[in-house]
Amino acid sequence: MPATLLDGNIFANQIKEEITEEVRQLAASGLRPGLAAVLVGTNPASQTYVRSKVRTCEQIGIFSELVTPPESSTTEDLLALIEQLNARDDIDGILVQLPLPAQVDAKRVLLAVSPEKDVDGFHPVNVGNLSTQRPGLVPCTPLGCMEILRRANIATEGQEAVIVGRSDIVGKPLAMLLTNANATVTICHSRTKDLPAVCRRGDILVAAIGRPGFITTEFVKPGATILDVGINHITDPVLFERFFKGDEKREKQFEEKGSTIIGDCDPRVTRIAGACTPVPGGVGKLTIAMLMSNTVKAAKLRRLARQAETAVQG
Ligand code: NAP
Predict the structure, then answer these.
(1) Which of 9, 140, 231 for a ligand 1 pocket mutation test, highest count of atoms within 8 Å of Cβ?
(2) Strands (E) located in 114-209
(3) DSSP string, 187-245
(4) Using CA atoms, how far apart are residues 272 and 205, in angstroms rounded to an integer?
(5) Residue bearing the CA closest to ligand 1, atom 12
């Protein structure tokens, strides 16, 4: 039996509906969450991502502000901008779209974002909060993975979870979230020995590598749940044939556009897995929804906590 498709669109729409309702309720108590998106320069892919984030804010009722410093901006220019945004009460989340221009010290800029407004969850304070299970902001893509498991009723407690990829934005925070959810977690990377055998231990297998179709059927435990985080554009016809020969829809798309998107898993893993996220239309769909969720969470943590403090003092 082929794997159940874990459709990211369905889960993302559910989450967005829930957040829209929450934003409506917060508005009734005079609180409108706000997100500032900082887009430096004119990178077309970054423009597309940021526009899509701003549009989603508008749909949900979150205030959003797009700030577009020029490509020539220096680290100091951006630090000054972040300082202004940190000081503004109407801004709850600050998103700095990566990559930043080569002359900018991206680490310094990201570190300057106040941990309270760090809706990407990259700040070391939030990394520490996650690992010690304190309230804080968690990176959006791993959060999206957890939402898929939760909403699809896939158990984590006592399950073996194997994550391939140890990046700070996906693999490591997801390992922490799964550990907190009582899974037994193994993190793999480029130096892992006998990767297929380690992956076959996974009741839950996460691929966050950045290599097209790398995870093949020999990596998969029969019936496992696979979360494919990878987003890879392929243009090589030989690679295309290897993965999509006979898939009429993809063949038509490849012919028209000269490219297609594939995850880190070979599409044939669906023959062995019990459930699987597609690419496109899987994990990626939840990332923006979780950014919205983080913005609302940041607003509540910061502003409601302050209201409570004022009430106690008053
Ligand atoms: P990254 O920072 O490049 O990390 C890749 C990880 O994969 C590294 O830990 C690396 O190991 C490991 N790796 C590479 N080759 C390997 C191999 N042959 N065997 C085992 N492990 C290997 O990537 P990332 O930022 O986490 O992104 C991973 C993928 O997810 C990319 O395709 C990216 O586009 C996608 N992504 C999607 C979303 C979304 O919204 N869906 C969000 C973020 C990222 P080492 O540490 O040993 O080098």
Answers:
(1) 231
(2) 160-164, 184-188, 204-207
(3) EE-TT-TTHHHHHTT-SEEEE-S--TT-B-GGG--TT-EEEE---EEE--HHHHHHHHT
(4) 12
(5) 165
pLDDT in tens, 236-286: 999 999 999 999 999 999 999 999 999 999 999 999 999 999 999 999 999
CA 162 – CA 217 distance, rounded (Å) = 15
Mutation pick for ligand 1 pocket among 146, 209, 294 (CB with most ligand atoms within 8 Å): 209
| Chain centroid to CA 120 | 8
Q: Which residue lies with its CA nearest to atom 17 of ligand 1?
A: 190
- Both tokens of 314, joined, read 């008053």
Within 10 Å of residue 76's Cβ, how many Cβ atoms?
11
Query: pTM here?
Result: 0.96
- Find tokens 């630090």 and name the residue: 79
CA of 173 relative to ligand 1 center, distance in Å? 13
When pLDDT is cut at 50, 70 and 90, the band that residue 303 belongs to is confident
Using CA atoms, how far residue 146 sits from 98, 135, 154, 156, in Å, is 24, 17, 10, 9
Q: Distance from the CA of 206 to the center of ligand 1, in angstroms?
A: 11
Instruction: Please state, in angstroms and rounded to a whole number, the distance separating the CA atoms of residues 196 and 299.
Output: 43
DSSP state of 17: H
Domains of the chain (ranges; CATH) run 30-114 (3.40.50.10860), 141-286 (3.40.50.720)
C-alpha span between 299 and 156 (Å, rounded): 29
- By CB atoms closer than 10 A (0-12, 13-18, 19+), residue 282 is buried
User: By CB neighbour count within 10 A (0-12 exposed, 13-18 middle, 19+ buried), where does 230 fall?
Assistant: buried
**DSSP code, position 166:** -
Q: Is the pLDDT of residue 314 over 70?
A: no
